Amino acid sequence: MEVAVVPVIALPPEGCGEDALVEAARAIDIACRHVGFFAVTNHSVPKEVIGAAWEATRTFFDAPAEEKMRVGMPYKGYPYGYSGLCSEALSNSQGSCSPPDLKETFSIGPTPPPKYSVAENAPGEAFGAEEEEAVKFAYAVTQWPQSPPSLQPALEAYYVEMQWLAARLMSLMAIALGLPPSFFVPLIDRHISALRCVNYPELNGAPAPGQLRAGAHSDYGSITILLGEDRPGGLEICTVATNNEWQRVPTVDGAFIVNVGDLMARWTNDRWLSTLHRVGLPNLDPHHDHHQFEKTVDGEKVVTRRQSLVFFHQPNWDARIECIGSTCGERSESKYPPITSGRYLMSKFQSTVQGN
Length: 356
Prior knowledge:
Elements: E1 8-10, H1 18-34, E2 37-41, H2 47-62, H3 65-68, E3 81-83, E4 104-108, H4 124-127, H5 132-138, H6 151-176, H7 185-188, E5 194-200, E6 214-217, E7 223-228, E8 235-238, E9 247-248, E10 256-260, H8 262-267, E11 276-279, E12 295-297, E13 300-302, E14 306-313, E15 320-321, H9 325-328, E16 339-340, H10 341-352
Parallel strand pairs: 1-2
Antiparallel strand pairs: 2-10, 3-4, 4-5, 5-14, 6-11, 7-10, 7-14, 8-9, 8-11, 12-13, 15-16
Helix pairs in contact: 1-6, 2-6
């Protein structure tokens, strides 16, 4: 499989001049127009925070299945906690009926804003009484495990860093669209983003026809920030820039992979691409029969287990998503009707859940 061309963009340092911001914004605009994906370096996320989150996540996934299920999502459609193998089929969000994905996940959500408290049962203070059910979805309680004890502080610290990095990227994206740097601030100041830890285990048998580690889908929100590892069976994208063929996205040392989500594509009237992507299976060793799923090189087994940390940045629950004037133009019509961020997220998420 060929490797996709994903631009690598060095973020300008804090406090830099306008020229550096404009240069970075221009590079982001080009990447979002043609690929919908780019890698960012110089992101200022501390290595210690990344390492702690990564190791605590690995320890959690290494635990026995029964221990992980103690923090399982309590019912179908619940957004946070542990979800076991084959509990989700991401391709269903595209109207497909592919087999469920070969992955397990642990997800955490945002902290409720000060005016909203689940315990007080007063969501109307922040969002209006009619949004009660939806707000409880966005701010549902994360099911935290007792072991490892490092998991909660590590992931909460990582979430905070991703929150700031997303805000920094959204500011540059506003500049790229010819808007004030603060344009998106009132639309993301109560964001409902989720952090999802994903484990793609070694394959122990033949997958079902059409089954992947994660089926083809686009992300639902504004942007996604991904940290993965260079293992077989990774991220693949399909767009005009890849000749409408699936191509592998390379892992860039020290960088995060960023991609445009559906809401950003709608905001920009498809000027920017919410690119179809998936996580493929490890390549089979051609010297083995089709039931053998160990990848080998010169007789040595290659580890195909793969882990990733994925931050899905989602605008405020009640943020109105409609074509931004600078991208629609006076003579252009919006391709999409206005929607709200939270309702779109909830409908997409619930369409992918498997089981009862």
